Structure prediction request, 234 residues.
Amino acid sequence: MSRMASTLFLSCLLLLTGCRHALAEPLPRIGIIGAGEMGGTLGRLWVNAGYSVFFASRHPQELKPLVSSLGPRAQAGSPLQAAQYGDVVVMAVPYGALPVLGKQLAGTLRGKVVLDVANPYPQRDGDIARQALQTGSGIYSARLFPGARWVRGFNSLAASSLAATAHQTGEEAVAVPLAGDDKGALDTVAQLTTAAGFTPVVVGGLAAAALFQPGGPLFLHTLTADELNHAIDR
Ligand SMILES: NC(=O)c1ccc[n+]([C@@H]2O[C@H](COP(=O)([O-])OP(=O)(O)OC[C@H]3O[C@@H](n4cnc5c(N)ncnc54)[C@H](OP(=O)(O)O)[C@@H]3O)[C@@H](O)[C@H]2O)c1
Prediction:
């Protein structure tokens, strides 16, 4: 190849690579409300995967050590700021906090994808937890945030187990059951699940989230995708 031809070839290659880069979808921004065991663990996995994460709690100044340990893709502030920031917003607070957060944030979260990892425990969260377990926690949580594109997931696995098993490959890969009524929202959460290092398995609509809530047959079971599909008779 002549020198001019190879320069032309290289220029075209650079142009094409540049265009592909420019056309690539930007990663969704993630807001996480509740930055304890669960919010902190998930946020760390997503920051490590290249996502920008805004952590929130009632005491955001206490989140400085977490944010500094994660670097420039992490920041912290109020629940409202996290709800405004996130294309996807994760609810990682005690279940009893959801009704008040619903009143404060439902307007901001309307039309956004929300991943709900909160578990109702009557001994911790009181009567609302009993109601949620009876109704099905997916359906119950979603009603508190009308208009949000609600997905239940990650709630059936302990934060310590998520941290220890992320990015296992092949037959070792850990599955995360997901449930939701909005296909696009499920696709988005499935992508985030893969980015965090797990295999997403959609078990059904929001009503199916009862299968992996506290007391449900899939709760706290670390399974592969095959095992999970087998457990739900697929
Ligand atoms: N830990 C697990 O292994 C695990 C596994 C699956 C599901 N879950 C569920 O995930 C949720 C979080 O559990 P966790 O273990 O991460 O709890 P955690 O370590 O106690 O963290 C809770 C976080 O929520 C914040 N928070 C509490 N009330 C709030 C409110 N009203 N508004 C905004 N932020 C609030 C807390 O900060 P401030 O108090 O400073 O506001 C803290 O950052 C729970 O529903 C739990 O059942 C936990």
Q: What stands out?
A: The radius of gyration is 20 Å. The pocket of NAP is lined by residues 33-39, 57-59, 62, 79, 92-95, 97, 101, 117-119, 155, 158-159 (CB under 6 Å). The chain has one domain: 6-231. The beta strands are 30-33, 53-56, 74-77, 88-91, 113-116, 149-153, 175-180, 199-204.
